């Protein structure tokens, strides 16, 4: 099927409809980002093409003629169909783009994910990434239930029901506020002393909590928490007051250690670390682009450890 002779292009019809909606050729020109003389020339060309006068031009402005109003009514469904067509094509392009649903623990999301995703974006700009953030157990659940294609967690052990790969290690540090009694002496503490102290803990399900609890429980039953707080930011703020010691990722504590808002307390008989892991459903191991993201994360962590 070919178009009938004299069929105008949609852009000039859209301009004419704007004149009808705004009541002014000048306002229509501004809506379309062109000058008023250019808009007038396009409407004149349309009139010649249709052999119909569309506007009455006068010293006070331009108004639609009766045929002009009829042309506008015919143009509206054509323009609506064009918008529907454009939206449908855009949806096809979006549907055709690779999607990657990932979930990450709060520490990884805040301190690692931006670098890993930047590398993926540079290599595969067409990939659409959706990121959910929770604690490590929440991430494991999302991956296990198929709500995420790939997860990133920290903790002492790999999830039993999921596939995993170690990406790197993260140091944990014992910190106190400047007003805490430990800050005045900075004497190394033992794991047993730490276990017997009421600490600021993350909520159950946190990778940091699981790692520290396992280390302390191997020595003795840990004391009841001074407080359980649902975010690293809340622990930082509370630790600064001197209420109780906290054990945090060095990534999180470092800014406060540099300013002196927090003081690091050496641990006499242990090194506290936890592992960063990528996790996935065993029946759905990482494939491109998820596999590429895991490899970039590994490379980044190896480079960081070497320097």
From TrEMBL:
Recorded GO MF terms: DNA-binding transcription factor activity; transcription cis-regulatory region binding
One Pfam family here: LysR_substrate
Keyword Transmembrane annotated: no
SUPFAM superfamilies referenced in this protein's UniProt entry, alphabetically: Periplasmic binding protein-like II, Winged helix' DNA-binding domain
Keyword annotations of the record: DNA-binding, Transcription, Transcription regulation
Domain HTH lysR-type: 8-65
UniProt keyword Transcription, yes or no: yes
Family assignment from sequence similarity: Belongs to the LysR transcriptional regulatory family.
Protein name (record): LysR family transcriptional regulator
Lineage summary: Bacteria, Bacillati, Actinomycetota, Actinomycetes, Mycobacteriales
